[in-house]
Design the sequence.
């Protein structure tokens, strides 16, 4: 088959060609595909579809534009199965349709034509082999039609002028020297119309582009004519209800709008107001549209169409078209707001689990119209760490401690239930539709396994201003009476506070009262399972005497994610980057009752890495600076048999020197299970991730990812000296109504690490922390004499491989 498009006569020729092709099949096709009366022979299976000569357009997009597709495996993961089975659960059979194939020839020509190649030619071959066919498209692209100039007329004095041709190129999306792409031209028309409507020209008209083409030279001149018309202010606003329910007052609805009578009608303001009505939780549906300016502007016809389920224009579309019932010559616009009220009260109870937090229960109550105004009252209660005592260390749950030595009752605090109680009130549209004022009270008990237990209660105050769509800026203040419980080794290693009076002071009640400024932006298409767009967040936090805080510090944390939709089976490539820095202020020590040493930093403000939302090759908080602790009785080899106590080392004399000596002699004989890992966190963090998400079958997705992070101390310039790792992995997602249920397996490339070891000595009523590896050359920045952990010298190859794998179960994407 041979088809060729010829410039301005393309549409006529294409129509004629369609009629000819539908009646007369290709001679080559007839020769290679003899007629058969059976249904199977009339519709043989498509084995392959090949393209030759495609150079200037994206081959993947061209393939997707055609109806003729080859039979294929439903997923890359199913390909090994498809070698042996062609079950419809794994394999999709595609059959040859002669009519659609003839149309595909025209689809190829149209595809090229719309992208600027107006002289493209297509030849096809259909090779028959039994009940299978192999299809081939041979494309001769020819020369493209190049844009010489782009002129946009009618905008003088209307839109802000930029200089020369560059301004017109930006508006049109086309540049001289590029192919005449009709898709870009369509986008340009919509962009110009949107710009006019956002400036208050409600009757703006953008005419279809005029293309003057030199078919011999393959050059084109594009002219886009515009007629902005007069500015269109809003004459009046009417509120129409779609039901008899009237719990929400008209005043509340009007206060949510970002426009008012007398202001210019702008498309962006209508869209923002409609979104504000939806997000308030007060309405099941909301529509904002224009109504007749010369008659009674009740808009009931528009609202009645919506109530009846008839198609209606969304606010942006109505404004973008500059239409509605208004006549083109109307210089004012009336706006109608159609609302259908929803349930003002909501109560929910949920349950779930993660590998790090065990089981959890959560209950929420929300009143969206508290005290008869646009105030949202939220009461939240949650209990976590349920079942930790019984499930700790049971696969797949996180092992807080591999074993609990003597004194385990003191460590059981990490396995006790956590909770959070809170009541918050939000005043929406506080003095402006863009403002939200909120406050509340709270009480909580949080636990970071093996690191600290944080108890606190207090109050918070927040003010949020939406700078523009999906760009909120929040200022918050949180006053909290806080108490931190952690192992003595945590304070000794992190703060240099190894004497117990200082540690006791740090574990007493202190004030943690930071002020923070948080900004975020979102262009993602889906909050639960984003496939395109990007997210960004920046947090600035300060605590000092001015904020009535005992713990005093400055903290900066930023994160960003972007999502790219790939052409292959709707796959998504996602990227994430995070960076953080925190520094304690010198005045903290005096405020919390610590004398000397480095400034103390609250453990919850330190940076941690590792876990289902971080570097997935590690468990929760396992990446970064850590130490090991061990029971002194294990070092001495203490045994009690028939009432007699014996020691394998030291003869019962317990002094720091004896413990260090015995550890040097017996350290390697102590099982890895007898050591407890203590994450210490860092003050600087850099983290990055890349993940490929591929649809497999129905709601199932597969993922391949690589996570990496570096956690260090002090300045960002010294971050390279910190602890870091890069971990690859694979995962599966199930798309549920509440978000993706995620199973990830991360691979830890480094199995053995060298860590310092501490133990606690209780002697004559005095408690002391002893660094068992200090005299072996193990110190900060020098791990030569540290304990190799895990040791596992006798472990099998299979055991070592399994030890490198970390399983995570959770709900919601990692980023």
Sequence:
């Amino acid at each position: 088959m041979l088809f060729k498009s010829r410039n301005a006569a393309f549409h006529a020729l294409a129509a004629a060609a369609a009629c000819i092709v539908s009646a007369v099949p290709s001679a080559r096709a007839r020769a290679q595909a003899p007629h058969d009366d059976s249904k199977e022979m009339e519709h043989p299976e498509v084995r392959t579809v090949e393209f030759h000569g495609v150079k200037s357009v994206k081959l993947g997009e061209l393939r997707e534009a055609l109806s003729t597709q080859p039979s294929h495996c439903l997923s890359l993961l199913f390909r090994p199965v498809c070698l042996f089975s062609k079950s419809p659960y794994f394999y999709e059979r595609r059959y040859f349709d002669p009519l659609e194939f003839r149309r595909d020839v025209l689809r190829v020509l149209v595809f090229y034509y719309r992208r600027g190649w107006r002289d493209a030619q297509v030849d096809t071959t259909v090779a028959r082999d039994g009940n299978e066919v192999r299809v081939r498209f041979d494309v001769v692209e020819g020369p493209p039609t190049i844009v010489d100039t782009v002129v946009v007329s009618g905008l003088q004095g209307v839109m802000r002028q930029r200089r020369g041709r560059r301004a017109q190129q930006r508006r049109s999306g086309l540049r001289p020297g590029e192919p005449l792409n009709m898709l870009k031209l369509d986008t340009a028309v919509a962009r110009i119309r949107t710009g006019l409507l956002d400036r208050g020209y409600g009757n703006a008209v953008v005419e279809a582009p005029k293309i003057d083409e030199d078919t011999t030279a393959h050059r084109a001149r594009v002219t886009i004519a515009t007629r902005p018309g007069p500015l269109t202010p809003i004459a009046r606003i009417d509120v129409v209800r779609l039901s008899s329910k009237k719990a929400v007052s008209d005043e509340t609805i009007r206060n949510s709008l970002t426009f008012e009578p007398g202001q210019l009608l702008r498309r962006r303001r209508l869209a923002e107001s409609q979104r504000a009505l939806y997000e308030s939780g007060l309405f099941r549906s909301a529509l904002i549209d224009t109504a007749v300016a010369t008659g009674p502007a009740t808009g009931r016809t528009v609202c009645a169409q919506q109530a009846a389920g008839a198609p209606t224009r969304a606010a942006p579309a109505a404004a973008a078209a500059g239409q509605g019932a208004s006549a083109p010559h109307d210089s004012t616009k009336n706006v109608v707001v159609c609302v259908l009220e929803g349930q003002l009260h909501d109560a929910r109870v949920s349950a779930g689990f993660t590998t790090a937090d065990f089981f959890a229960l959560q209950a929420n109550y929300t009143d969206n119209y508290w005290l008869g105004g646009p105030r949202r009252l939220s009461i939240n209660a949650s209990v976590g760490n349920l079942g930790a005592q019984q499930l700790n260390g049971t696969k797949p749950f996180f092992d807080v401690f591999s074993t609990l030595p003597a004194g385990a009752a003191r460590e059981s605090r990490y396995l006790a239930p956590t909770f959070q109680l809170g009541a918050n009130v939000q005043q929406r549209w506080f003095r402006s539709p863009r403002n939200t004022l909120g406050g509340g009270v709270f009480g909580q008990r949080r636990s970071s396994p093996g690191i600290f237990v944080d108890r606190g209660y207090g109050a918070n105050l927040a003010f949020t201003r939406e700078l523009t769509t999906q760009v909120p800026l929040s200022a918050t203040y949180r006053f909290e009476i806080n108490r931190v419980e952690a192992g003595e080794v945590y304070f000794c290693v992190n703060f240099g506070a190894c004497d117990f009076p200082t540690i006791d002071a740090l574990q007493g009640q202190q004030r943690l009262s930071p002020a923070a400024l948080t900004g975020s932006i979102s262009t993602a298409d889906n909050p639960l399972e984003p496939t395109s767009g990007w997210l960004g967040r920046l947090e600035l936090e300060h605590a000092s005497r001015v904020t009535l805080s005992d713990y005093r510090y400055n903290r900066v944390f930023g994160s960003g994610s972007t999502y790219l939709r790939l052409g292959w089976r709707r796959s998504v490539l996602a990227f994430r980057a995070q960076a953080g820095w925190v520094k304690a202020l010198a005045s903290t020590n005096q405020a919390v009752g610590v004398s000397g040493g480095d400034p103390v930093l609250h453990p919850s403000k330190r940076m941690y890495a590792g876990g289902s939302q971080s570097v997935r090759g590690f468990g929760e908080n396992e990446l970064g600076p850590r130490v090991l602790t061990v029971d002194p009785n294990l070092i001495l080899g203490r045994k009690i048999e028939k009432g007699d106590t014996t020691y394998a080392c030291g003869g019962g004399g317990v002094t720091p020197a004896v413990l260090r000596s015995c550890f040097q002699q017996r350290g390697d004989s102590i099982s890895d299970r007898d050591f407890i890992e203590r994450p210490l966190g860092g003050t600087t963090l850099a983290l990055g991730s890349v993940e490929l998400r591929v649809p497999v079958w129905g709601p199932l997705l597969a993922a391949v990812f690589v996570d990496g992070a570096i956690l260090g101390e002090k300045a960002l310039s010294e971050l390279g000296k910190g602890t870091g790792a890069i971990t690859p992995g694979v995962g599966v997602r199930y798309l549920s109504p509440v978000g993706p249920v995620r199973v990830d397996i991360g691979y830890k490339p480094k199995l053995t690490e060298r860590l310092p070891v501490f133990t606690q000595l209780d002697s004559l009523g005095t408690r002391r922390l002893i660094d068992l590896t200090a005299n072996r050359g193990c110190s900060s920045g020098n791990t030569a004499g540290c304990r190799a952990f895990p040791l596992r010298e006798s472990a099998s190859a299979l055991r070592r491989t399994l030890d490198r794998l970390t399983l995570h179960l959770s709900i919601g994407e990692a980023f």
Remarks:
- The mean pLDDT is 80.
- Residues 144 and 235 are 50 Å apart (CA to CA).
- The longest strand covers residues 452-468.
- Residues 98-114 form the longest helix (17 residues).
